[in-house]
Amino acid sequence: MSIISTENLNKTYHESEVPVHALKDVNLNIEQGEFTAVVGPSGSGKSTLLHLIGGLDIPSAGKVIIDGIDINTFSGSKLTEYRLYNIGFVFQAYNLLPVLSAVENVEFIMLLQKKAKQQRRKRALELIDAVGLAGRAGHKPVQLSGGEQQRVAVARAIASNPKYVLADEPTANLDSHSAGILLDIMESLNNNLETTFIFSTHDERVVRRARRVIELEDGKVKGI
Amino acid sequence: MVTGIAWKNIWRNKTRSLIIISAIAIGLCCSLLSSSISFAMGEQMIQSAIRTRLSDIQIHNPKFTKDKNIHFFIANAADIVNQIEKNPKLVAASKRVTINAMVSSPASAAGVLVLGIDPGEEKSISNINNSISKGNYFQTDLRYPVVLGEKLASTLDVQLGSKIVLTFQDISGELTGGAFRIAGIFRTVSSEFDRSNVFVLASDLWDLLQTDTLYTEIAVLLNRGANVDSAAQSIRKIVPDMKVDTWRTLAPELSYIEETTSVSLFIFMGVILMALTFGTTNSMLMAVLERRRELGMLMAVGMSGKSIFLMIVLETFFLSLTGALAGLAFTLIFLILLSCTGIDLSYFAKGLSEYGIAEILFPYLPGFMFAAVTIMVIITAIISALFPALKALRLRPAQVLRM
Amino acid sequence: MNMYFILAWRNLWRNSHRTIITVSSIFFAVLLVLFTRSMQLGTYEHIITSTLSVYTGFIQLHGIGYWDERSLENSMLLTDSLTGQISRLQHVTAVVPRIETFALASSGENTTGVTVTGIDPQKEDRMSKLSEKLVKGHYIHSGCTGILVAKGLSENLRLSPGDSVVLLSQGYHGTNAAGLYYVNGIVDLPVPDLNQSMVYMSLDAAQYFLSMYSRVTSVAVMIDDPDHLSSVEKKLKDSLGMKYEIMNWREMVPELVQSIEIDNAGGIIMLGILYVVIGFGIFGTVMMMTEERKREFAILLAVGMKKLRIQLMIILETMIIGLVGVVCGILFSIPLLFYMKAHPIHLSGTAAEAMLKYGFEPLIPFLVDVSLFLKQLIAVLVIAAIAVIYPLWTISRLKISKTLHA
Fold first, then answer.
1. Positive or negative CA dihedral for C123, C127, C132, C135?
2. 3-state secondary structure of C143
3. CA atoms within 13 A of residue C32's CA, in its CB half-sphere
4. Helix, strand, or coil here: C374?
5. Which of B242, B309, B292, B318 lies closest to B20 in space, CA to CA?
6. Which residues of chain B have a CB within 8 Å of the CB of C178?
7. What is the ipTM of this complex?
């Protein structure tokens, strides 16, 4: 059974004078344990799709169904809680809290889940170790390179044991070496933990490593 | 951890936070210091009035208060004093004969209040004996000695040893009087008092009035800080047929000063804190706007609206409290320094002494001001946090992350 | 210039919340300052006017030495030519003679000390509106032998119009002064101390009572406008200074003048603190505006805009914030202050008692004065000028490449 499916998903932005149709009738099914890339040129609707299946935004029409439930029927606070326990996020701009160290950034998610302190710190250190930053756990984001920051972001994303991780252009700001390492890590987490990974990208090297590719153009699914 | 993050967030834009913190610190410090001066002035005015003539509590024959005629004396003054002296809060009591009189010298005449006293008793409740500028306080062999204020002496154009005549009504309403010699001239901080009061021996007045021992007033001094109203209440129980007044009812204008000082200072502090909220709100609003992405991320990863709101409120809180603590600390340091040196107000002294304020002022703040200011700071912190925190809540993660 | 103005104006609305908050902080401060200052200055004026009209007049002439030693021996001769000479001076509106001395008043069983004031009934009435305070009986007129008794005193002595009272005092050259007087009327004076002690009689009656024919203790001079005080005083001193003691009201009530100065200084300090706090707010805003636009400035520099022009734009922005705040504050307060001026606050309770105790009617009138508004305008502009130093300095040190790189 697919864990995520979309039914006739539409999103129109009315922020400028001319309405922008970011997504048009998108129908998708994503299975447990997939390692999927969403590709397409800039403005094709990749980020919008990820935001909608991540519950960050509300579709203009259509549904996002996760585990058989339409997530847009949740109230605001229920949706927030749902995201906390079920979805991990990785952003293009890393978006770590600058005032916290690497390990604290990972721990923070578990703090929100109200996990016990010792448990939190132990798991955070394990995850930092898993993304290959064992020696840099105490560093603040500004002391880390872009690749390292993004690895912390990945560790943070899986810290809550989510069903799936959404990554919006995770390698866009990284050089190819760092991008390679990041993908290695994501792949191994996908294999070991069976966490579903969905990432948007327009980077050929990344696309090649995806096991499934969803191609978007002008807000429509062009190929799967 | 949220607390820690909030604290660390303040220091992300050091200059901006420091501006707000110093605005709060300077605003509080300046306004508390000027409040302390007002408090000290008010307190000194009251104390000087209490320690010259007013005293804490006065006991009269109820009819005397209306008519000021010595016909209405206190029948058993000595007994009353014996009874009330048992009150532990009482420092001393003095029996007085008070008569409105005309004082005349060869040069001039004036209306005064004559206080007939026993110097030994009077010393323990009033500080006139310490305010003698010329001569002495009844340590004299002169017959019919009188001690009067500098202002009155100059109006009458008299010196130490000069003779003045006091004319007043005796117990049956007939005019009587006698010549007194000036034994001492005093100068208190109140020029008004110095102009209108003269002290003589009670026994000399009895001579002239041709009466036995007779008193019209018992003045009572309490421990400093004792509750005047409850002390007056317990005296009333002992002497139910006498009129017992506290300084508050005797001198409503002083009581008014006491009341209005705190009220107007609270209003003033409120205004300053309100002005500070504008700056704090602005700074926090900027902090929220420049951290839009970060806040969007926190919402995306599942931080609840409540926690986000709390975090912004906490940040504002820390910002305000840091400023307030710094301000209170500076205030305390200044107050400790000033309580040693005092503030020299001699430039203004002439105007101030009209109201009974000494030339050197020792500012102080009552403890409740500190507590009240802390509470007011917390309230204003919450007020200034509301708008930015609501602004943060209204952020839409998808929107801010797209940028 | 116009373009800069448009640019500055639009820049301000890029972050409308911040601009509005800053402008309203200035608005709030200006309104508050104007309200309290208007109240304070109005109260001072009220106190001074009552003192002038009831007690001292603008200027007084006495016999030399009278002020320090209030004795009838230091009284002065009042001639028609002297009165004429003073009233012919420009700006002088009234010349009011008085005799003041202390006496004992007896009625039946009761005796008490009183202040006997000999007045010219018509002139006195014009100056202090004494007849308006009449509650019983009739006012007095020149040459009549009746007296006016203050209400509190009349109660103590149990006097009504028509009753007689014996006055006893020391006359000129130490003569015995004694006389029986009939009460013409009762006046209710607002000040408790005076209400317990004042007795008015006509100047002629007082001169006869105290055996001081054609003599008075003081001559009060009223003028049309306080601004002319020093010129009138100078003319009087030049022509009469040798023969009389000439004092202006400030010299006669130095304690009042100083008390007002102290209170005024206190008020100014408090407002100063308020402005400092507001100043920090403006400074914070201007600083934030600068910090977040450094990059923009660098770009403007890169495309060839001169630093001076950018600085000019920032000065304009800051001045607009200040001006909008202060002008709104002033515009809003004008009707408010005029309303308060027309409807002064009447005090009651202990506040009223306290004010009466010091000798003034318990009123808080407001003063509206152009200079008051101008001062706030200047204060806010000075604060803005200080705040703008930071961005000017930042822009002058801005390095294009470094800023764009960051």
1. negative
2. coil
3. 22
4. helix
5. B318
6. none
7. 0.78
Q: Give CA separation, B354 vs B362, C201, C386, in Å.
A: 18, 30, 41
For A17, phi and psi rounded to 5 degrees? -65, -40
C314-335 pLDDT, tens digit per residue, is 899 899 999 999 999 999 999 9
Helix (H) or strand (E) holding C107: strand C92-107
**Identity of the residue in A80, A93, A168 whose CB atom sits nearest the CB atom of B302:** A80
- The first and second tokens of residue B379, run together, are 């309230």
Distance from CA of B45 to the nearest CA of A (A): 55
Beta bridge partners of C291: none
Task: Report residue A157 CA to chain centroid gap.
Answer: 7
Look at B300 and A56 and tell me if their CB atoms are within 8 Å: yes
Query: Cα-atom radius of gyration of chain A, to the nearest Å?
Result: 17
Helix (H, G, I), strand (E, B) or coil at A167: strand
Please tell me the pTM assigned to this model.
Answer: 0.77
The pair of three-digit structure tokens given for residue C150, joined into one six-digit string: 């203050």
- The CA-atom distances, in angstroms, between C87 and each of C59, C76, C79 are 13, 17, 13
Task: State yes or no: chains C and B have 3 or more CB pairs below 8 A.
Answer: yes
Residue C108: closest C-alpha in chain B: B173
Q: Quick: pLDDT tens for B278-327.
A: 889 988 988 898 888 888 888 888 888 888 898 999 999 999 999 999 99
- The gap from C-alpha A173 to its chain's centroid, in whole angstroms, comes to 16
A55's torsion region: left (phi>0), alpha (psi -120 to 50) or beta? left
| Residues in C touching B106 (Cβ below 8 Å) | 174
Q: What is the DSSP string of B32-56?
A: HHHHHHHHHHHHHHHHHHIIIII-S
Q: CA neighbours within 13 Å on the CB side: how many for B178?
A: 18
List chain A residues with CB under 8 Å of B300: 54, 56, 83, 89
